[in-house]
Amino acid sequence: MIFDVKKPFEVSVEKFPLQSKKDEVNPYMIGKLLRKRYESLGFSVVKTDNFETSLLIEFVRKYKFLDKYIKVKLGEYRQNKNIEEYNKQILQLLTLEDVQKLLFVCRACSYLGDPSFPDFLISKGSEVSLRYIYTGDELISGKTFFILLASCLLNSDIKFSAMDFTDYAQPEKLDADVFRILEGVIQTLSKNLKLRSVEEDGIDLSFLKKWLEEKLVNPEDATASYNRFIQQASAETKLKEILGRFEKLDTSSIETLPKPEKLTALRNALGINMMEANDVINIYETLKR
After folding, report:
1. What would you report as the CA-atom Rg of the chain, rounded to the nearest whole angstrom?
2. Is 268 exposed, middle or buried (0-12, 13-18, 19+ CB in 10 A)?
3. Which of 24, 33, 52, 95 has the largest count of CB atoms under 10 Å?
4. Can you tell me the distance from the alpha carbon of 231 to that of 176, in angstroms, rounded to the nearest whole number?
């Protein structure tokens, strides 16, 4: 649905009554109280603190793709049982396609300084939703931008969750000024990104300028940018070719070597430079289960 940025962007607030006064409850406890409330209603609740970092592992495994952004996010990944179990849990609730789209939104929001991912993923039966904890503070533009972009890419149910106190009721919905938010987003991004091409920026966010200029949010623009990024990740690259040769090697003799020696051995065996050897090792470690 095409959205007029001059109109308020409304986000629903899901509220629960609490028999306490607002000043009697530490704001940091609201998240725990909301989680218990959802669980009492039969929902499973998954915290999403590390959603992007964890699920990027699955993205790399599928596409054998690395760029500067992913390298920074993953660092030197080592197998972690907790990550594997977390990813399995998430992929039982969301399709890999939806996960990929959420990772795309995380990447766009990260360029603002914060992935802005919702606090909870709640599920009951086939119903799966994302929720932000809301304590009455000023609406953070990064969260609104996340919801706006996510709503363009997938059929997502993203709301804020809040507690109503005996002496204070939260609003039923929150209104955001999308025009002002887009102005701020573009100003921030322009400091770090060229906003022109996938090759330069990792993803093409030039459609944000188009939205601001035309004063219309067109989901097709976001979808086209997402599809271009997936095409880039799917493309044959020199790294994938090197990885194919690496997988045919007998690596038993270098498995236990310290990393500097392992890099040198790989460079000599495959005729590659040190940076390429490092990328091969990082992907190989990620691919191992």
Report:
1. 22
2. exposed
3. 52
4. 33
Rounded Cα distance between 179 and 215, Å, is 7
Say what the pLDDT of residue 283 is. Answer: 85
Neighbours of 186 (CB within 10 A): 17
HSE-CB for 140 with a 13 A CA cutoff = 18
Q: Where are the domains of the chain?
A: 3-234, 238-287
Contact 279, 77 (CB under 8 A): no
Pick from 242, 287, 286: nearest CA to 73: 286
Contact 39, 246 (CB under 8 A): no
Going by C-alpha positions, the residue among 157, 215, 159, 211 that lies closest to residue 189 is 211
Provide the token pair at 244: 């194919």
215-253 residue pLDDT tens: 999 999 999 999 999 999 999 999 999 988 988 888 787
Contact by Cβ (8 Å): 225, 207: yes
